[in-house]
Amino acid sequence: MKIHYLPSLLSHFILATILLLTLNACDINSNQTALLATGQAQQATQIALLATRSALDLQSAQLTDMQAQQATQIAGQATRLSNVDHIAQLSTLQAQQATVQAQLATQIAVQATRFSNTSQIDQLTAMQAQQATQIADHMSWISNLSTRVPPRTVVDNPTATPYRPVEGSVAIEDGRCCAGGTAGEIIDVYVAFGAYSPLAQVTEMRLLTGSMQFEEDDMVTANWEPFVTSKRLPIPVALNWTGYHVSVQYRDAAGNQSRVFHDDIAIEGHAPRPTP
Predict the structure, then answer these.
(1) Among 92, 130, 151, 197, which is most exposed with the fewest C-beta within 10 angstroms?
(2) CATH class of the domain defined by 167-270
(3) CA distances from 9 to 15, 37, 45 (A)
(4) pLDDT tens across 189-231, in order?
(5) With contact defined as beta carbons under 8 Å apart, do 164 and 256 qualify?
(6) Which residue ranges make up each domain of the chain?
C-alpha cells in the first residue's frame, strides 16, 4: 500500500522555508513583520511535524493492517497444512488398517486350509481303519479255511483220470455269433480246426454236427478221418432261429486222444419272398 501524505507535508515545509528566506532577502526592518514571519515559519514547522507524525501513525496503522492480513493468511495456510497433515495421517491409518485386514484374511485362509487338511486326514484315517478291519477279517477267514480239515471221501473203486496229452480247438466262422439265409436253402459255414500233441503228430479227428453238442460217449458213433485245419460244412436253414453245433475230437499218431471240443453258431432263417 502507498502513502501519499508525506510528500504534501514536505511541500508545505519547503514553501514556508522559501517564504522565510524571501522575507530575509528583502531586508524588511519592521520587527513586527519579522516576528510574524518567524511565527509563521514556526507554525509551518509544527504543521510539518504534525503531518509527519500523522503520516507515520497512518503508515504504522497500515503496516499493522498488513501484518494482521499476513498473519491471517499464515494462519489459513497453517490450517490448510494441518488439514493436509491430518488427511495424510488418516490415509496412513487407513493403509495400516487395510494391511491388518489383509493379514487377518490370510490367517483365516490358512486356518481354513488347515481345517480342510485336517478333515481329509480324518477321512483317510477312517478309511485306513476300515481297510485294516477288512484285512483283519479276511486274514481270520483265511486262517479258518487253512485250519479246516476237509471231510475224507472214500471211493470203493477209484478210477484214474485218463492222460490227455492232445490239446485242440474249433471255431465256426472265426467265432461269429450268427449266420442266416432263406428258409429251405443250404448255406456253407467255415470251420477252423487246431490240435497239438507233445508225444506225436496229430493225424486224425472225428466230428459230429447238429442242434446240440456231443460228448465223448457220443463221439464213438463218428468215424475217424484225416486231420485237416479247416472245412466248409453245409447247414440247412430253417425258418426263424436255430442253433448249429460242431463237436470234434483229435488223435495223434501214438493213439492218444483229446477231449471233445465244441463251438456253435446261431442260424436265422428268413421267409422266402413271394413270387410276383
Answers:
(1) 151
(2) mainly beta
(3) 10, 19, 10
(4) 999 999 999 999 999 999 999 999 999 999 999 999 999 999 9
(5) yes
(6) 1-130, 167-270
